[in-house]
Amino acid sequence: MADKIQLRIVTPTRLVVDEEVDEVTAPGVLGQFGVLPNHIAFLTLLQPGELSYKQGGRVTRLAIAGGYAEVLDNVMTVLADAAEFAEEIDVARAQRAKEQAEKNMAALNIDDREFALCEAALHRATARIEVARPETRR
To answer: Does the structural domain 5-86 have CATH classification 3.40.50.300?
Structure first.
């Protein structure tokens, strides 16, 4: 039995993580889920939110903007639309994006197709802000 899992996080522009880790927590579309070594084969959609992983006593946090996660043979592969480490996030820019998304949503009708796009932008911005704030770090 393995005591580590290989975590690979890939975006369209870069390989973000390729490391052995003890545990991963990610935001699935059906809720947050955890992956430990020897996890059952698994495939899911991800929603914007925080992905974290543990190595020893250290926890590393990233904001991801949705995508897919696959767990197979002690390898977790995440194909994310975007992924940023907490220290890479421009909080002021994320706050402006959040405010703009909220403003756009207020101006649209609930039936408007663009409402879903604005809501997705709001979720991405909120996830980035939460991951970047030092007071929310575990």
So the answer is: no
* Structural contact between residues 6 and 75, judged by C-beta atoms closer than 8 angstroms: yes
For the entire predicted model, the pTM comes to: 0.79
Q: What are the tens digits of pLDDT across the range 51-69?
A: 999 999 999 999 999 899 9
Torsion angles phi and psi, residue 3, rounded to 5: -110, 5
Highest mean pLDDT among 55-59, 102-106, 120-124: 55-59
Range list for CATH 1.20.5.440 in the chain: 89-136
Q: Supply the CATH classification number for the domain 89-136.
A: 1.20.5.440
Measured between alpha carbons, how far is residue 60 from residues 16, 93, 100, 137 in Å?
Answer: 12, 22, 29, 9
CA distances from 96 to 100, 104, 113, 131, 134 (A): 6, 12, 22, 16, 19
Q: Is residue 106's pLDDT more than 90?
A: no
Cross-strand bridge partners of residue 89:
none
